[in-house]
Amino acid sequence: MRPVKTWRPELPGLSKPHAAALLPSLLLFATTALSTPAYADARALDFYIPRQPIDGALLDLALQARVSLGGSVTACSGFGPAINGRMSLDAALTRLLAGSGCRHAIRQDGAVIISRQLSAASAAARPIAPRPTAPVAPPEDVAQVSEVVVTAPRRPELIQSSSSAMTAVGAERIARAGVTGMQGLDSFVSGMTVTNLGPGRNKILLRGVSDGVFTGLTQSTVGLYLDLTPITYAAPDPDLKLIDIDRVEVLRGPQGTLYGTGPIGGVVRIVTRAPAFGQEALSLAATRSRTGGGGWNSDYSLIANVPVAGNRAAIRAAIYGETYSGYINDVELKLRRVNDGMRRGGRLSTALEISPGWTARAGVVHQSIVTEDTHYVYRGLGPFRRANLVREPHQNRFDQFSGSLEGQGGWGRMNASLAVVEHGFKSRYDASSALRRFGSGWRIGALDESKNIHLVVGEANLASPDIGRWRWLAGALASSSTTHTAPILAALTPAPHPVYSEDRRDRLDEAALYGEASLDLPYDLTLTAGARYYVLEYDTTSSVIQGRRSRLFDGHGESAGLTPKLALAWTPSDQLNLSAQISQGHRAGGFNTAGVIGQDFSGAADSPAREYQPDALWNVEIGAKYRSPDGRARVRAAAYAARWRNVQSDQFLPSGLAYVVNVGDGADKGVEVETNWRPFEALEVFANGLIADPRITDPNVQFDSRRNAGLPGVPRTSANLGFTWRQPLREQLHLLADGGLSYVGASRLTFDGRQKHRMGDYATGRLSLGVEASAWTARLFVDNLFDTKANTFAYSDPFRLPDAQAITPLRPRTIGLTLTWTAR
């Protein structure tokens, strides 16, 4: 696919790239003087906050105003008044904190900082100054670290007060770093690994809990959610673009109690921006960049919020389109930049305030990804070169339709949702080397794998108000999914004709009841216990055709059980939180059906079992969260140990067809740390790291795994260091900078631990510099700052896996400019 030619203005004496970069910057400064000041806290917002303790009311306020919250939130005493109406953020905070012993300050970046009220003597000693147009934080507050309010634990929480190992990355930080998907987000989250097979093909792993790097029949170890809806089962990450979102929340460790079967490694939840009542908003963004050894990349987006029916309803839309240039050359096919690609999509959502405290929402999501080829290369052919007989395109289409009802009051809060997900993807692999295994003598062949997933899921939960010593949560879920898989292996010469094909359908029905309860004990202790009772039924039908022969299969399975959780937290002050917890997660079993006619399914050596068994993981961890007395630093650390029985893994038969095997028992232990430090108002520094020891402890004798070889695809060590800087020059003009360094430790592709499948062990970086002038922002960025050429993923296709000649390089250094205009 050739890059699309676009007009770029030229200025005398400047090259085309320099002119294209300079012109938006000139436009930015030219419009600065015409822009009117706009403060997020000065706008009128709709609030509904029932009467409750001050800390809970502050969480509700932060969620509804979409702001970060920091400082001494738990230091405020008493109950806040009920707030219902349209007012500024400053007015709502003033009413809420009256008589609580606390005060608020709103930083220039919009974060709300809560601190203890000055004594009367101190207040009298401080000179009185006229109140500015927007609240300005006092000098002792401006450098405090703020936190994103999260709802992944099914009720609003600050990470500092939660007993869960959790990370939340806010929209502003994601946007400043130029992150548009899970690749890139992993540098913000300790222990997060994303494979590098390609857009719409990747697999997410957390904390070293890896069942292998291939995606097939097994359920993903990490549950991926879009708002309230699970969007993956036995599927890769659909790579939804992180546009117009509030935050991304990451829960580590098994989440079986609240999230059901599958997420034994953790949960990643994308929280989109809800339609805002009474607000008109429009945002336009354009990015133009160039990849070294490749071509031009483009990215355009539009976001709009439109109020309707007065202030009781709103519609919000986000539309985007992206093209990215290839940088791999195929010397056999004599093609350059074979791995071009594009991503297009959008979201449309509506919200209606039924009555104070009750909101109904509905939305639709669509995204499509098309890549012209994979982006691995071969050893010995030179950088960014490979030799295939067949191109390997990929298509990924994702659609979601959802509706929800949310309500809150003095009685607590309720959420109910219903969603339909349609996820389809198709990949082609060069199967020329495998034709003889299927009885074909032709030279060129391809495997076309297609999978279509239809999921319907409904869920409702009810949470008690945060009043008194007891707090509880109860919920129910019902879901039904149907997956149609249709691999076709065909000889392409002299004329295309199928050699092997399968038509497989899987149906999975799940029903569950779950709940959690917390009790405040003496000595600042809190005990939390939870459990989930589930019932699963699954059916598989398969029809395999090879030449004139065929094989049919029809299987049924079911399981039921209880998934428990127990946690104890000690919070002697708002600066320290120590916790310990034990939790469990599990995955359902299933059936193997693929293989040449005559394939043995006895489970003996070198043969798959007809039915693979469920697996389960128990995790024990101890966590510590500390906030410095001045509020400038936060540290979160956890030490954990996990036991994993009957590890399921997607693997490949000698024919290159996929199957699932229980590779044995495994274990994982490690230490993870995350820290934020704001030495002064303009600068915030982030760091995180993981040291882990994932391994197989008791191998299955029928599978070629090695004890203590390590689990595939996950490094034993990883670390990230980043910063964000925002320096005001004058009232509506700011300089911006953001950057980061990442180290990914060494890992291996397979369970046998062979050196030839080694990958990782590299460092990379990113940097962006920008200027913000009222409604305009321009950002110049560099990705892969050092032009690192490491092997990120030692995999090409299932037919050449034993050759171990594949290398997947990082995208070469990419330099670009992003221009954003936002009007409210």
Automatic annotation (TrEMBL):
Q: Which UniProt keywords apply?
A: Cell outer membrane, Ion transport, Iron, Iron transport, Membrane, Receptor, Signal, TonB box, Transmembrane, Transmembrane beta strand, Transport
Record's signal peptide: 1-40
TonB-dependent receptor-like beta-barrel domain residues? 323-785
Describe its membrane topology: Multi-pass membrane protein
Family annotation (SUPFAM superfamilies):
Porins
Main localisation = membrane
InterPro entries in alphabetical order = Beta-barrel_TonB (IPR000531), Beta-barrel_TonB_sf (IPR036942), Plug_dom (IPR012910), TonB-dep_rcpt-like (IPR039426)
Where found in the cell? Cell outer membrane
Please provide an example of a Pfam family that matches this protein in its UniProt record: TonB_dep_Rec_b-barrel
Q: Which residues form the TonB-dependent receptor plug domain?
A: 160-267
Q: Where are the transmembrane segments?
A: none
Instruction: Give the highest taxon in the source lineage.
Output: Bacteria
What family does the entry list? Belongs to the TonB-dependent receptor family.
What name does the UniProt record give this protein?
TonB-dependent receptor
**Species this chain originates from:** Brevundimonas fontaquae
For this protein's source organism, the top of the classification is: Bacteria, Pseudomonadati, Pseudomonadota, Alphaproteobacteria, Caulobacterales
